[in-house]
Structure formats: structure tokens, C-alpha cells
Amino acid sequence: MKKVLLIGEGARENVLAEALGTSEEGYRVFALSSYKNPGINEIVMKTNGEYLIGNINSVEEVRRAIKQVNPDFGVIGPEEPLFHGIADEFRKEGIPVVGPNADGAMIEKSKVWMRELMWKYEIPGRLRFRYFNNMQEAAKFILEYGGSVAVKPAEQVGGRGVKVVADLQAYLSEEKRSALSKGVENVASLVKGDVKILIEEKVDGPEYTLHVLTDGKSYLPLPLAQDYKNAYEDGIGPETGGMGSISGPDYLLPFINREEFDKSFEIVRKTADAIAKEVKQAYVGILSGQMMLTAIWGPTIIEYYSRLGDPETSAIIPRITSDFGRTLELLATSHLNKAKIEINEKPSIVKAVAPLGYPLDKNMATGHTIWLDLPRMREIGCNVYFGSISQEGGKLITKGSRALEITVVDDYDKAVEKLDRCFSLISSDTKLIFRHDIGRTISQQEEKAEIVRFSYKSRESKGILGVSADWSPNGGLW
Q1: pLDDT tens per residue across span 234-287
Q2: Which of 272, 364, 425, 459 fits a 20 to 30 Å CA distance from 83?
Q3: In whole angstroms, what is the distance from residue 9 CA to residue 388 CA?
Q4: Helix-then-strand count for the chain, H and E
Q5: Per CATH, which fold does 3-106 belong to?
Q6: CB atoms within 10 A of CB 189
Q7: Residue 401 vs residues 36, 156, 342, 411: alpha-carbon distances, Å
Q8: 128-201: what fold?
Q9: How far is CA 270 from the centre of its chain?
Q10: Is the distance from CB of 9 to CB of 41 less than 8 angstroms?
Q11: Reduced to 3 states, what is the DSSP secondary structure of residue 61?
Q12: CA distance 55 to 62
């Protein structure tokens, strides 16, 4: 019986553990996490594996886990272990693993590296950008540019810190200049490296994510998903790791057509090839394009993940009816050409549940007890995935982030109704937050997509796709 070592502890890893634990290959699932995730633990126990507790970003601790388990292959869920070279450690020990080496993971770790790569290899869907390590210069550029821009941390910081500056007046008061500089400084404070601030041209349109499996030779796209980043209803409030997701029907979303899917796949495939050329080694793992349908390009890259998204994984994998656990092994061992993906054509909705305090005050959101009627929720048709929640004795204790992700695979209206029933079976000693509107705004997004589609198709017919005009008070360009 083959053994697999899973690295990670969130809802995404719970989904992956379930896929591995229910595979016809009969894998024994071992896990390394910083705390005991109840969902992962359930799979570990069922498959006669072992749960190891340790630092998932520590090369030494992962190396010890590899020696102890001696797995046939590994699966790395989160991005931080990839940034710390954990995939490299598996390969040094001769163990195949799902996840790129640290050099390849730069596509997610550094937004500047990603943007430069896209321009160097002329990959479609690229945005113009500038980057700064000096806060004053960044603020000065925004003021002088005069157009709408997106201001981001130059490194991956868990989806936080993006600011949009829209249609600035050419001349601002001293008070507005001061406020703008402070906002830029706040974004920069999230970054540890030398390059602090990335400024991109602002684009608008419906967002979606395309995840592509690749072993460096073959490419296998998964169904599209859409993530809901903001904490509160109607897309307002602070950005989070994701408060929910939708996927389907079929491989698409209601507002993304097959042609746009194919163009998105081509963008991600070209990027994987470009990474391999740049770092001189094959990219093996998942490359995920966080995309937006825009008037300037059509399918456009906002950022990349070097792994599966969370909560997108909870929307996509439960829809896969083929053996996804076996697909992960084929990916790790560079036999992806033998894999196939079969899906439930019905869509899915995921809603995340978090303790009050998330995402701004982790201490406030930590240490609370959650109760749920898991058997009844499963009977209704809800898949329950445990995230930032620890199994401590007979209790479920929150760790400060999204505690649960609840998934239903069904027509959108029916899925929303089942989710509402399942949410009534969850309680806590603190207030729990979740979004009611996930899966309820499809028609608005379809309308938005049609407007954007008219614009980019017009550009395409004129041969000016990807071209836009710039202006500033001084006549300067990007």
C-alpha cells in the first residue's frame, strides 16, 4: 500500500486528504501540520496513516518527517512551504512531490518577478506596471500619473493590502497627498523584501481562477472557479483569503465562455513554459491564474498561485468524479499524460465560516469553541471541510482564520437553500461571520461580462488587443 505525505493544515488540505483517502489506489495518508485539523485527522485515521505535528515551513522538520514516513510521494498544499523550498527537500530525498521548487514558486512569491516574466516572454493578458522601494517615489508616481491604478504589496501577503486609486485629479490638496502617502506606506509595511510597492494599471471586470496541473510535459486544466475575497456582503470590507467560491456548471462559469476558457488556458500554459525557461527546470505542480475578464485584453492575469487556491479547491475538487488522488500521484511522478478528469456538470457553492475578528484581529478570532452537527450536515448534502480549527481533546477550537468551508454541489438555487439549512447546525461561543450573497449575484456578473466582452472583442477586431492610451499632467507614460 502506497504512502503519501501531505503538508498543510487548512480546508484546502482537508479536501486533498479526502481525495487521497477515498482513492481506489488505497493510499495511506500521513500529514504534517502545525495543529491537528479534524478533517485531515479523520482521513489519516481511516487510512491507517499517522498525524505529525510540526512547522510545515521548516526544512529540518519536513526532512525528519520524510525520513520517518518514507512516503512514495508528497503533496504540498500551501504556498509558504513552497517559498521555503520544501518541495526541493522531497526531491533531494528522491521523493516525487506535487509542488514546484522554490525558484518556480517565485511566480507567486514576487508579483514583480511575475510581471517581468510576462513582459519578457510576451505572454498575453499582461498589465503594465511600475515598482518602487521608496514610498515617496511611489506616491509621487500615483499623483503625477493622473489615471486609475492598483497599488499592491510587491510580495505575496495572503491576499491582503491591495488598494485602488481611481481617477485621481491632477492637483490634490496637501491633506489628500498626505493621506495617499500614508495609504501607500501601509501597503508597503506588509512586505519584508527590498521592493515594497507594485503599481499596476487598473482594470475592471468579473474575476475567475483557472488551475492547471502540469508535470512540465503535459497540461491538465481544472474547472473554473470564482473566489469572493472581501469579508462582507456585496464585495465590501477588508480583503481575506476568501470567504467563498463558486464553480461550474461544467468547466465554465455562467459569465465565462469556452473561447475565454481556452485563451485563459493558453496564457497559463505559456507562463509555465516561460518559468521553466527562466529557472532552467520543469515546473511540476499546480499553476493557477487569478484572472479577470477585461476590456483591454479579454482574459487578463491579476496574479498567479503556485498551488491550488483556497477556498477554490473546496468548490472544484468535490465536483471531480474521477480518481483525483491518483491524478495527484501521476502529477508528482511526471506521468500526467495518463490522467483524466471527469466532473459532475452541476455547479458548486462554497461558503466559509470565520470567528468574529477575522481578518483584522487574529487574537480576537482565536481560542473559541465551535459545535456542529456533522452527520446531519452530510445527510443534507453539505461537504464540511475544516480550516483554521484545531482538534483539542473532544473540542473544536478556532485558530484565528476561516474555521470551516461548507460545500454543496447542486444547481445554484438548490445549493444556496442547502447551505442555509447546514449553517443553522453550526454554533459557537462567539459570533460567526459568513457571506449570504455568494452564488446569488450570477446575473449581475453576466451583465458585466457582456459589457466587457463587447469592448475587448471590438479591440480584437481592430488589432489593438492589449493596447491602451495613457495620460498624465506632464504628458508622461508608463
Answers
A1: 889 998 999 999 999 999 999 999 999 999 999 999 999 999 999 999 999 999
A2: 364
A3: 8
A4: 15, 25
A5: Rossmann fold (3.40.50)
A6: 12
A7: 15, 17, 32, 29
A8: Dna Ligase; domain 1 (3.30.1490)
A9: 19
A10: no
A11: helix
A12: 8
